[in-house]
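S.,

Sequence below, as promised.
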Amino acid sequence: MHNLDNRIAQGRGDEICDKVLKGGRIFDLMTGDLLPGDVAICGDTIVGIGDTYEGREEIDVTDQILVPGFIDTHLHIESSLVTPFEFDRCVTPRGVTTVICDPHEIANVIGAAGIRYFQQASEHTLMDIKVQLSSCVPSTHMETAGAALSAADLAPLRGHASGLGLAEFMNYPGVIHRDPDCLEKLALFDGGHIDGHCPLLSGKDLNAYIAAGIRTEHEATSAGEAREKLQKGMRVLIREGSVSKDLHALQPLLTDITSPYLCLCTDDRNPLDIAEHGHLDYMIRTLIALGSSPLAVYRAASLSAAEAFGLKDRGQIAPGKRADIVALDSLEACNAQLVLAGGTVVNDTAFAARRTIDPVGRNSVKAPKVSASDFRYGGNRAETPVIGIREGQILTDHLTEEITPDNGDKRPDVSRDLSRITVIERHGKNGNIASGFVRGFGLQAGAIASTVCHDHHNIACVGVNYADMAVASNRLGEIEGGFVVVKDGKVLAELALPVAGLMSLEPYETVRDQLIPLRAAAQELGVTLEEPFLQLAFLALPVIPALKITDRGMVDVTKFEIIG
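The prediction came back faster than expected:
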């Protein structure tokens, strides 16, 4: 057990250090200098830099550059499709040593038990998982979730060591129009950290939202939107997920001047994207390649993130800071050669030594069995609202198309890229089924279905053949949730996600490998989207403009109302 006396003694050189990194250069995020000298570590804390130390364990990092561990400032671990333990094993070796997560995906399925699962898991992972308390379960009144959490439900969850504050407040109309339930949650966390979520909000509405005490925001999709939020005191989190790709649009804003107030986040990123491109490491090298300075980028990845969330014990390689350290071959390439998380060398031995906990949320898919006729979509008028996908964004367009009813049914039309989209309530609450149209998948045949359906996580199914849509939707109940691709009545590919219908029990490598045939099967149906499964999931999120769908019908998000 290390105490204050040990840290001071080892920092002064009066005691042999527990661990010393030798031969590298520290990238100082205050001055931009590259500093020679050893890094001395006592337990989980850096106690010395810029001098020569002796250690019980000495690690050679000659010719490598040492940077602070990366901090993902907003993400949903559930969207990685694996448990927190497998997510830890997947991304910590890439240099991500702290993540600030919102477990509202699992909370929308099983309530407070899902948040407690993440809190308990955080006690055993190598990375430091900070668990924000989910503010919007459900996200709005226009959907059926598996649970509902009030301020009174959140209060007992406070005080855990992983806690920082209230997670993204998605119901921005509820904030600016002073909904009593929203105000009660905001009051509970008044003076603490409250994450934001306010896409396209500006002017007096943005002023009102920030006046509620909300300090960070990750939904900016243009430099102009991000600049206004910065000017009004918000820390902006640059996001690059599997679907929401805002890095290129916001990169020009990231300079040495603005970097103390900008951070990086992934929000939702799956193991296949991580394997093919990377995680925060991908964002770092891409931002540098696009012209942002290494100082600005590495600040945003660590020091600025720590400051934004009040994590005074990390974000810098300096005495007194948590020993989260990444040794790189170069700043530009950002390839981690060695990672320390809280002073522990990240390797297979360290992962194997972790304690794990039992999964939760099994057998959560309680949807009604459906048939082809359940996917019919009536209406007397030919004028029909259509969700228009914007690839690379979770914003959608509110389109209108003339679709003439045929025997009481408006049918999909592959020649116009008009697919049926249906949401089926799967929590055993009411059995709601709502249908509409979507453009952007490019489907020519078959169907895709998923229980990853933000944020209520009902079944979302898109297809051009009703019988295939029924097969895909019913199959999800048999495998406890996940992804399914069907053509001509046959399941072409599937991925079971039995933990609340969101996460696999398999190693991340297995999930990564299963996503490859899923992607290929979707392409066999004619799908042109790079990531069709998460793109489908976001079509059901009624807090992102402009047109979405839930189990209660099509939602005009701009008007914040169900339109049919």
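The chain is about 25% helix and 25% strand.

Coffee later?
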